[in-house]
Design a protein that fits this description.
alpha/beta; 3-stranded parallel β-sheet; 13 helices; about 20% helix; LRR_dom_sf; LRR_FXL15/At3g58940/PEG3-like
C-alpha cells in the first residue's frame, strides 16, 4: 500500500523525544473499535492473540474481543489453564464488556466451582449469545447452572460430552429460551422427558442437531414450524416426528430405519434442499413419488444405506447425488435427473462389487466421480467380468466428465485372457487415477484392460516397487515405462492403434515433460483430434 502520513492515536505519549509521531499506513487500525472486535471474533483464539504484534494500537485489542475460547490443550498445566480463564473473565467483568461467544473445551479434570461461578456471570451480565461447552473428563458429572436454560440472550447453545447432568439442571425449573435459534446436543445423556421440556422452551428454534445422545428414544417436534436444519444420529431405535416440515431445508439422519419417512409419507417437504442419509435402512417404497415429496431437493447423499439393491430415482430438482456403499452385493439403479451437475459413487475398500447405474439423457454438462477398489486375489477367477462391469458402468456415465479412481488392496499376478471380447466401445474418461499402483508382472495386463474399456485424457499414478516389507517409490521414469509397457505388447494391443501421443508431468511441475517422481500422463486419442 502507498504510505500516507497518518498519526496513530497514543503515539505522542510514546515518543521519548517529544517529536512528531511516526508516519505509517495503518488504515485497518483507524476502523471503529466495534468493527475491529468483530474482525477478531472471526479468528481462532491463537490467531487473535497474534494480532498484538501488528502495531501498538492492536497490542491489547484482543483482550476485549466479543469471543473467548478456552482449551486446556493450549496450556502446559491445569493451573495455568484455570488461571488464564479466571483472569480473562474477571477482566471482562471489571471493564463491563459484552461477550457474544463463549467456547469451553476441556478433556481433563476441571474446576467445577470456577465454571459454576462464571457461566451465570457471562450469561446474565455479559449478554452472551452463543455458548459452546465441550467436556470429556471420564465419569465426572457436571451439573449445568439452571440459568443456561433460562437466558433470553442466548441464540445458540452447544453441549457436547457425557459429563453434563442435564436432568438436575432442568428439574423444577421453568425453561425459557425464547430467542434460541440453534441447539446442538452431542453425546449427552438425556431422556425423552428432559428433551421435550427443553425443546418446548425454544419456540423459535431453527437449527436442531442431536448426535449420539444416550437415552433419547423419541424426537417429537409438534409446535416448531421454523426448523430449517435438522440432524439426528441415533443410538438404537429413535422415533422422529416433525409435525410441520414446511420450513425444513436440510435433513440429516444416521443409524436408523427410514421410520421418519413412513411417518411423514403423506406430507410434503416443499423447501427441503439437502437430504443426507447415513447407515439408514430404506424400505422398497422410498423412491416412489420422490420428486413430489421433495420438489426442491438439490442434494441427496445415500451413505452406506441398506435397501438400494434395485431402485429408480426420478427428480428434476436434484443437482448433486452421492452414493457410498458398504454392501456384499451390488446395486442396480436407473437415475433420471435431467439437471444433475455432480454424481459420485464410492465402493467399500473391502469389496470389489461394481454397481449397475444408468442415467437418463441429460442436456447439461456434469461431472461424475467413481471410486472403486479391486482385490486381485478375489478377482483371480472372474477378472474379465469385473472389467466388463466397469466398462458398462462407464458407458452409463458417458454423458458426463468422468473421474475414475481405482485402488488396489491386494497384489497378485492375474491370468487375463487376451481373447476376451466382452468389452463395449472404450469410454472417454477425463481422469484415470491408479492409486497404490505397484510395479509387478501383472501391471502390463492391468493397463491393457483399463485402456480397453476407457480412453483417459489423463492418467495419474503414485508408483511403488515391491520389495519385501518395504515399498520404494519409483523415481526413474524410463524404468517405469519399460516395465509398464514392455516391447512385446507394443503394436499388438487393440488400444494402441488409437493412441496418438503420451506426455508426462511431475506432481510439482507446471510443464509437460520427461521428469522423475510422481507421474501424471496426458494421453491424446484419435477421437479427440
Amino acid at each position: 500500500m502507498n504510505k500516507q502520513s497518518v498519526k496513530r492515536r497514543g503515539d505522542d505519549d510514546d515518543d521519548d523525544d517529544g517529536g512528531s509521531a511516526t508516519t505509517i499506513d495503518d488504515r485497518l487500525s483507524q476502523l471503529p473499535q466495534p468493527i475491529l472486535h468483530h474482525i477478531l471474533s472471526l479468528l481462532p483464539q491463537k490467531d487473535a492473540v497474534r494480532t498484538c504484534l501488528l502495531s501498538k494500537s492492536w497490542r491489547n485489542l484482543w483482550h476485549s474481543r466479543f469471543k473467548v475460547e478456552f482449551n486446556d490443550d493450549w496450556f502446559a498445566t491445569q493451573k495455568q489453564f484455570w488461571s488464564f480463564l479466571d483472569n480473562t473473565l474477571q477482566r471482562y467483568q471489571n471493564q463491563n464488556l459484552t461477550l457474544h461467544q463463549f467456547i469451553f473445551d476441556v478433556r481433563s479434570v476441571f474446576d467445577f466451582a470456577l465454571l459454576q461461578k462464571w457461566i451465570p456471570v457471562v450469561i446474565t451480565k455479559m449478554c452472551l449469545r452463543s455458548l459452546k461447552l465441550i467436556i470429556s473428563c471420564g465419569t465426572t458429572v457436571f451439573p449445568l447452572p439452571f440459568i443456561v436454560f433460562q437466558s433470553e440472550f442466548l441464540v445458540e447453545l452447544h453441549l457436547e460430552g457425557r459429563n453434563f447432568n442435564i436432568l438436575e439442571s432442568t428439574e423444577n425449573v421453568m425453561l425459557n429460551l425464547n430467542n434460541l435459534r440453534t441447539l446442538r446436543l452431542h453425546c449427552v445423556d438425556i431422556t425423552d422427558e428432559v428433551f421435550e421440556k427443553i425443546i418446548s422452551g425454544c419456540p423459535l428454534i431453527e437449527n436442531l442437531n442431536l448426535l449420539h445422545c444416550i437415552g433419547l428414544e423419541s424426537v417429537k417436534l409438534h409446535k416448531h414450524c421454523n426448523i430449517k436444519d435438522f440432524g439426528c444420529a441415533v443410538i438404537g431405535e429413535t422415533i422422529i416426528e416433525i409435525e410441520d416440515p414446511h420450513a425444513l431445508e436440510r435433513f440429516y439422519i444416521e443409524n436408523c430405519c427410514w421410520n421418519w419417512y413412513l411417518v411423514h409419507k403423506n406430507k410434503h417437504f416443499p423447501h427441503l434442499k439437502s437430504l443426507e442419509l447415513y447407515r439408514v435402512q430404506l424400505p422398497a417404497e422410498t423412491f416412489s413419488n420422490f420428486s413430489s415429496f421433495f420438489p426442491c431437493l438439490k442434494e441427496l447423499t445415500l451413505d452406506l444405506c441398506e435397501g438400494l439393491e434395485k431402485f429408480s430415482l426420478l427428480s428434476s430438482s436434484i443437482k448433486r447425488l452421492i452414493i457410498k456403499m458398504d454392501m456384499r452385493s451390488s446395486i442396480k439403479a436407473f437415475i433420471d435427473t435431467p439437471n444433475i451437475r455432480y454424481f459420485e459413487y464410492s465402493g467399500h475398500h473391502f469389496q470389489h462389487f461394481l454397481p449397475s447405474i444408468e442415467f437418463a439423457k441429460t442436456s447439461n454438462e456434469w461431472n461424475s466421480q467413481i471410486t472403486a477398489w479391486y482385490n486381485l486375489k478375489r478377482l483371480d477367477n472372474d477378472a474379465m467380468s469385473w472389467f466388463v462391469k466397469l466398462n458398462k458402468l462407464l458407458k452409463g456415465l458417458s454423458q458426463s466428465h468422468i473421474t475414475l479412481t481405482l485402488i488396489r488392496n491386494k497384489y497378485k499376478k492375474l491370468d487375463i485372457n487376451d481373447s476376451y471380447e466382452g468389452f463395449w466401445k472404450p469410454v472417454v474418461v477425463e481422469h484415470l487415477r491408479l492409486w497404490e499402483c505397484f510395479l509387478s508382472s501383472s501391471d502390463p495386463d492391468l493397463l491393457n484392460c483399463f485402456l480397453r474399456i476407457c480412453h483417459p485424457r489423463y492418467i495419474h499414478m503414485n508408483l511403488y516397487e515391491e520389495g519385501g516389507l518395504e515399498c520404494k517409490k519409483v523415481n526413474n521414469l524410463f524404468e517405469f515405462m519399460s516395465k509398464l509397457i514392455p516391447d512385446e505388447i507394443i503394436g499388438s494391443d487393440v488400444w494402441l492403434k488409437d493412441l496418438v501421443g503420451i506426455e508426462v508431468q511431475d506432481k510439482k511441475s507446471k510443464d509437460w515433460q520427461i521428469v522423475e517422481g510422481t507421474i501424471c500422463f496426458r494421453l491424446t486419442w484419435r477421437e479427440q483430434l
